[in-house]
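Following the same procedure, backbone shapes were mapped to integers, yielding the entry below.
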Amino acid sequence: MAPANNSGAGRKNPSNARGRRAPTNNLGSRNTARPQEQSQDTTASITAQRAEIEQLQALVQELRATADAAREQAAQVQAAQVQAAQAPTSGDTIAPILRPRGDAGKDFKLQDAMGLGGDQSLYRSIQRTVKHAAIQSGIDLHSRFRALPVDKLANIYKKVRDTHEYIDRRRFPADWPTVEFLKQFLKNHRKYDRKLGRLEPYQTAQEARSQRRAQSGNLPNIDDDNSD
């Protein structure tokens, strides 16, 4: 018997081999794409934050420049007023020096604002005169300036003007340097007496109102028949 021809059994079908495709790993490609997308989102967010910070920094610089320019302009105006007041004048003409905006000692220096930056002696002399005039006027040295009687304030202003020719209402409208000296003197006096225990500690307006309410609540009701 002739042996069977099994040569075809050991061969691979070329058509089947060509028709098959190797499996692809799509899961790995998707996992690789996700970190890339997250990285791109993070980069975009950081870039946006940096741009916003740069805009804010530019705005801050612009505001600072505006504030510096305003302060410089105010200083120039004040210097021009002082220079005009110190310049020689004809007859009774006196150039006015206006009060700067803000608070003395915080927003402006009183001595410079008065045009006495180079005259410490006259500045101190005026300061002492205000102090003595305030004591002699009989005002309550623990009071605040806005609570002082108008007539006594007028006497203080007149005393300072009569003592110092430089303090002229044509130069200083409304006696504003005397007002600033007096405010400072009263403030320092209150602070000194509180330190020595002669004056009660400072109360805010809200604390004072609360204390008055508490005191009024303890008063007897005059309409109550049971009250003595």
The mean pLDDT is 78.
